[in-house]
Amino acid sequence: MRYLMKNMNNYLRLIFSAFILLFASSMSAQDADFVYEDRVYDELIRSVQIYINNQPALVPIIGLNSGFRSFTLRFDEMSDDANEYFYRVVHCDRNWKASDLEEIEYIEGFNGEEIQNYQFSTNTYVDYVNFSLTLPNEDIQFRISGNYILIVYDDEVMTNPVIMRRFMIDEEQVQLFTDLQRVNDVTKSNSHQQLDVKVDLGEMRIGDPMNELSLSIVQNNRWDNMINNSPPKFISRNRVNFDNTGKLAMAAGKEFRQFDIRSLQYTTAYVSEIDLHDQGTNVLLHTEKPRAYRVYRDEVDFDGRYIVQNFDFQPSSNNVNSQSNESNFNADYADVSFALKMNQNLDEVYVVGAFTDWKLEEVYKMQYNNKHKGYHVTIPMKQGVYNYLFATKGADGKPYYDELEGDSEETVNFYTTILYYRDFIQQYDRIIDTQQVIAIGKY
Question: What is the pLDDT of residues 267-282, one digit of tens each?
Fold first, then answer.
C-alpha cells in the first residue's frame, strides 16, 4: 500500500508539473518581450533578499557545478498567519527576457513547488512570518548556465507574482581580468570610473568571438544603470579585449549614506533618537543635507546593500551564523524617519536603496514641509544596517542622483563583470565567467 501511494503521489506530481510546464510555456510566449527584474508586487512583503551561503553582501552568482554553494531567498510577510507561496525559475537571455528554452532544458526536477520553510516572528512588537527558500534543492537543480529569474506566487496556479529576484549561474570556463583606469573623457575624469576588461580564453575555443561574446557590468549590485551587451574591441590570439575608450565608464557616485539599527536600546551613528512605546518603536535619523557639490568624504559602507541583524537578544549558541539566522525571525520592525533639509522644494524626492530595489516607489516618496524647510518620510524597516541615497525622478522615470548626491572618482565601488557567450548552435546565452572586484578611485 505504501509503495502504491508513493507511486500515485509521483504520478499526480508529474501531471501537475506537466500542467505547470504548459502554463509556463504559454506565459513565456505571451511575455517574450517582458524584461524580468528585481521587484516586489505586494505591499505586505518586505525585507526581500537573495544571497549566497548566508552572506547577504555577495552578488547572487554561483558556479554551475559548485555543489557546496547555494542561493537563499528570504522575505517577510507582514501578517500573523502564514500564506501559501509557490515558486518557479525561468531561464533568461542576456537582456533578462525569457529564453526560448523549455524548462526541461535548463532545470532538472519540478517547477511550481511550495515554499515550505517559514518561521513566525518571536518577541517582536510587529508580527510577521519569515519565509526562506534554498536553490538548488531536492526539487530543482540547474542544467545550464545563464541568467535566471526566481518568481514567487501567492497562488498554486502561479498567476499572481509577488516577488521577482535575479540570479546567475556561471560556468567558470575562462578567466576575466578587470582593472580600474583613468577615464579617457576629460570632462568625466572627476565624476566617472572606467574599467579595463580582458579575457583569457585559455583552452576554450570560440568560433566567432567578435559576434558571440558580450560583456555586462553591474555596479554595486544595481541593475538600473548597468552597462549591457558591450562587444569586444579586438582579439589577440586567445585574449579578448573589450572597449576601454569610454564605453566602459560609469558615474562613480559617492559613498552611501547609512544608519545602524541593529539595537533599538541605544542610538548609533546617524541615529538621533529612539522612542520605544507600547505599540512599537520610532527611530529618528539625523537630518541630512544635499551633497552634490560637497567634497568627497571617505566612509566604509556596504556598497548600497543592507543586512538584517538584531543585537538586542542572546543567540541560542555562540555561533555568529546562528545569531544571523535567528535575527531573520526575532529582529523587530521600527518606523524609521528620514529627513533631508532643503530650502528648495523639488518636484519629487525619494529614499532609494537595495531595500527599494533601486526603484522610485510611492511608499519611499518624501513630503516637503514648508515649516521645517525640508523633506520627510517614515518607513517601517527591520533591524539591521542600511545603505541608502536620496534621488529625484529623472526624465526617464528612473532615479536621478545628480541633484542631491553627485559623483566623485574617488568613490569605492563594487563591480561585477559578466561574460556572455552565445554560439550559433546552442542558441542561448551562457555565462562563461564572472568577476567581482572592488574599485578604489585615485588610481
Answer: 999 999 999 988 899 9
- pLDDT tens figures, 177-205: 999 888 888 899 999 999 999 999 999 99
Grid coordinates of 102: 523549455
For residues 283, 284, 289 and 295, what is the CA-based torsion angle, rounded to 10 degrees?
A: -60
- Higher pLDDT: 14 or 347? It is 347
Tell me the domain boundaries of the chain: 2-170, 175-253+410-439, 257-400
Interior CA angle at 316 toward 315 and 318, to 5°? 70
Residues in the chain: 443
pLDDT above 70: residue 7: no
Q: How far apart are CA 243 and CA 197, in angstroms?
A: 8
The answer to whether the 2-170 and 175-253+410-439 domains have the same CATH topology is no
Where does the pLDDT of residue 12 fall: very low under 50, low under 70, confident under 90, or very high at 90 and above? very low
Query: DSSP 3-state assignment of 281?
Result: strand
Owner of C-alpha cell 539625523: 286
The predicted structure's pLDDT at residue 18: 46
- pLDDT at residue 2 in the model: 32
Rounded Cα distance between 443 and 437, Å, is: 14
- Comparing C-alpha atoms, which of 437, 363, 358 is closest to residue 401? 358
Per-residue cell: 2: 505504501
- In this structure, what DSSP letter does residue 187 have? G
Coil vs helix vs strand at 54: coil
pTM of the predicted model, to two decimals? Answer: 0.89
Percent of the chain with pLDDT over 90: 72
> Which residues are CB-neighbours of 13 under 8 A, at least 6 positions away?
110
| Cα–Cα distance for residue pair 168/146, rounded to 1 Å | 6
175-253+410-439 topology per CATH: Immunoglobulin-like (2.60.40)
Average pLDDT, the chain: 88
Asked if residues 439 and 193 have their Cβ atoms less than 8 Å apart, the reply is: yes
CATH of 2-170, one of 2.70.50, 3.30.310, 3.40.50, 1.10.3470: 2.70.50
Tell me which residue has cell 542631491: 404
- Cα 270–Cα 272–Cα 276 angle in degrees, nearest 5: 120
